[in-house]
Write a structure and sequence with these properties.
The protein is α+β, with helices and mostly antiparallel strands. The protein is built from eight helices and nine strands. Helices cover 33% and strands 23% of the residues. β5 (172-184) and β6 form a beta hairpin. 22% of the residues are buried.
């Protein structure tokens, strides 16, 4: 068992016996590690905000306050990433640090494979700072326009999309694209994809996608590299789940 899995399992073991205490020796035997390792793990959990306290005495040990912890949370990878994106809106507020702590707690409560899938999905999301609201649509005070469901689900669908796309002059072209990721700001979101018409990586502003259909074709996997993107406004930052 790796350390991440053990930390999660320690919380669940203490939750199962709460409000009774559980000794470090018993926990060490349960997870086949040393007492010192258990003590280090408990300290790490306490520092991350998990409400574990020590009860002294011959029958004492570590106790978990069940009333202040979350039970196992069945978040999907998409739900976890959606929360991470939403929490980025707290930048510059007094709540940014505590929002990060809340997200880490939710990730720790996820199943290991779901958490790994969420990390992989986050690796395909970029956030755009200092967008100057080029084009005016969805601008400051106007709110973001609705995103077509098939565009929002593009990474989950894992199929080639056929889209109608209008450029800044209003000329619409039909393109087949291979979705790779998203980039977004408070004013615009872009679907990043390999464009077969242009034979290269392009960022498609989602409010300029006039039509979309899903083909049956599964594209060959491609990497998404930030240095290959050419978004004229702003600075790109990689989304992280922390």
């Amino acid at each position: 068992m790796n350390r991440t899995d053990r930390l999660y399992a320690l919380v669940e073991e203490l939750r199962a016996v709460a409000p009774r205490p559980c000794s470090a020796r018993r926990l060490a035997g349960r997870f086949e590690v040393s007492v010192r390792t258990v003590e280090r793990d408990i300290s790490a959990l306490q520092q991350s905000g998990v409400p574990i306290y020590a009860e002294p005495g011959r029958t004492g040990g570590y106790c978990l306050d069940k009333a202040r912890t979350l039970p196992p949370v069945n978040l999907t990878p998409g739900e976890a990433v959606a929360m991470a994106v939403a929490l980025r809106g707290l930048e510059g507020t007094p709540f940014r640090a505590t929002a990060g702590t809340a997200l880490r707690k939710l990730l720790a409560a996820m199943q290991g494979d779901d958490a790994a899938a969420a990390q992989a999905l986050a690796g395909r999301i970029l956030l755009l700072d200092d967008d100057d609201d080029e084009g005016g649509k969805g601008g400051k005070g106007g709110g973001l326009p609705p995103m077509p469901r098939m565009v929002a689900d593009a990474l989950d669908t894992r199929r080639v999309l056929r889209i109608g796309y209008g450029d800044r002059e209003g000329v619409t072209t039909t393109r087949e694209i291979e979705p790779l990721g998203y980039a977004g700001s408070p004013y615009h979101w872009y679907l990043m994809a390999w464009c077969r018409l242009r034979d290269g990586l392009r960022a498609f502003r989602t409010d300029r996608i006039t039509s979309v259909s899903v083909t049956a074709e599964v594209p060959v996997p491609r990497s998404l590299r930030e240095e290959d993107l050419h978004i004229p406004q702003g600075v790109l930052r990689q989304l992280t789940l922390s």
